[in-house]
Backbone:
């Protein structure tokens, strides 16, 4: 079907996502088969779940379940909520999303930008607990008149969106020539609906599902050994959603966080694909499978990539986050270590900075900042430990807004230290450099002595070694 030149609204920009060939990464695995990826972040809201968001809303409208003035409530890991919020923004529905705390801030911000109301729930709450995102949604549904839970976990419109859309698009794009299809499972609607269409049109195709360790969706159940937490978002559950139909899925592979995130970063760097974390899980698992099963150049596999990196800017895209979680890719670590070796903050030869007592007035703090020619200085507690810092900008804002006077203690406007602000003098420079992506200054402490580290100090160190 020819694509419209002008769309009536953004909901018509859901579907017809591109199928793209991977070129570099399969070769690095020694994989000979053709590898194609279905790039679902090209949907209007940025993920494969836009398909079901629009489909569930429109089907509910046709059935009279949703009417003008209705409120949509949905428990979700984020992407389905974004799809529903997208539809709600266009169609004028109030949307309330319940979201586990594990899910990224970016998802929450996008939901709020669409006008959705977001309620965060404990990640550790079991799915059937009243405190879970599902339990809270059910309670809200009882309390709010004219509210509807479309329920992606059991709604037949979920797999139907992929049966009519995703699966058919793959068949059309490949002329029905696909040997293997790989997809990660969240609700299971994507893999179920797509696989059903593929198996109808391509009877010999093999469908492989990817499920993270810590989830219990994979079959046989013996694959779900042990109990693990995992950080890849949008896939896996501690229950089996109703929309999963195992008859269309031939095999399952269990995935792990580290190779998943490393692969997502490689897909961005080497293939130019701005994909999310579950994409890494799916591609890594598919390539391992292709290698282990000796797929040949005559074989073609299609891998579904569910969403974009937009949702994970402060997670796997952040080198500091990767470092803190011990997920850093070997090549990236090697490149940094080759420059800084085992050097620490001590090796920078810095002089201590002036510190402010916690009873220093705002006026005195500003005077000290000016005399020291500093943009910010640390503030120490009664024991002489640096625990906070104050900046020229924070003083300016607080005075301008009438929040403080020059005679007030500086503690009224200080910013607390967190792991991104403070290190010890023994911190490796390979670690310190990752902090400058978010800030201009890092404080290094040595008992009661405080040092201010800037990126120029690391450059000076490198220059001294040449």
Residues:
């Amino acid at each position: 079907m020819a694509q419209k030149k002008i769309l009536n609204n953004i909901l018509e920009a859901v579907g017809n996502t591109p199928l793209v060939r991977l070129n570099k990464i399969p070769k690095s695995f020694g994989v000979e088969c053709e590898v194609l990826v279905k790039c679902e972040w090209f949907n209007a809201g940025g993920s494969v779940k836009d398909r079901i968001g629009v489909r569930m809303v429109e089907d509910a409208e046709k059935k009279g379940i949703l009417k003008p003035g209705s409120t949509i409530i949905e428990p979700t890991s984020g992407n389905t909520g974004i799809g529903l919020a997208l539809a709600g923004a266009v169609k004028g529905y109030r949307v309330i999303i319940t979201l586990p705390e594990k899910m990224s801030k970016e998802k929450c911000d996008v939901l709020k930008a669409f006008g959705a109301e977001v309620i965060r729930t404990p990640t550790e709450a079991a799915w059937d607990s009243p405190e879970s995102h599902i339990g809270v949604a059910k309670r809200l549904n009882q309390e709010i008149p004219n509210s509807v839970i479309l329920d992606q976990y059991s709604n037949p419109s979920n797999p139907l969106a992929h049966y009519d859309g995703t699966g058919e698009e793959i068949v059309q794009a490949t002329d029905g020539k696909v040997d293997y299809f790989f997809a990660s499972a969240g609700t299971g609607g994507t893999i179920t609906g797509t696989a059903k269409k593929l198996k109808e049109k391509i009877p010999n195709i093999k469908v492989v599902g990817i499920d993270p360790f810590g989830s219990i969706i994979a079959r046989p159940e013996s694959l779900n050994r042990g109990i693990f937490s995992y950080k890849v978002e949008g896939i896996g559950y501690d229950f089996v959603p109703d929309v999963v139909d195992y008859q269309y899925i031939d095999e399952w592979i269990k995935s792990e966080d580290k190779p998943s995130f490393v692969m997502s970063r490689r897909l961005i760097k080497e293939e130019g694909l701005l994909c999310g974390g579950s994409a890494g899980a799916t591609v890594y698992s598919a390539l391992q499978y292709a290698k282990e099963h000796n797929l040949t150049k005559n074989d073609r596999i299609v891998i579904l990539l569910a969403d974009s990196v937009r949702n994970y800017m402060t997670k796997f895209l952040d080198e500091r986050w990767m470092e803190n979680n011990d997920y850093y890719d070997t090549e990236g670590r090697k490149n940094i270590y080759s420059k800084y070796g085992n050097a620490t903050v001590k090796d920078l030869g810095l002089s201590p900075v002036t510190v402010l007592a916690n009873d220093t007035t705002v006026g005195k703090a500003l005077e000290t900042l000016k005399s020291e020619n500093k943009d910010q200085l640390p503030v120490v507690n009664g024991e002489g430990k640096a625990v906070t810092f104050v900046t020229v900008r924070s003083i300016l804002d607080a005075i301008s807004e009438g929040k403080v006077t020059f005679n007030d203690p500086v503690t009224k406007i200080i910013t607390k230290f967190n792991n991104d602000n403070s290190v010890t003098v023994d911190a490796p420079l390979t670690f310190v450099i990752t902090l400058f992506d978010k800030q201009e200054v890092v404080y290094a402490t040595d008992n009661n002595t405080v040092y201010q580290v800037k990126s120029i100090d690391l450059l000076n160190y490198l220059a001294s070694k040449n």
Notes: The chain has a mean pLDDT of 90. The domain at 10-45+160-319 is CATH 3.40.50.1100 (Rossmann fold).
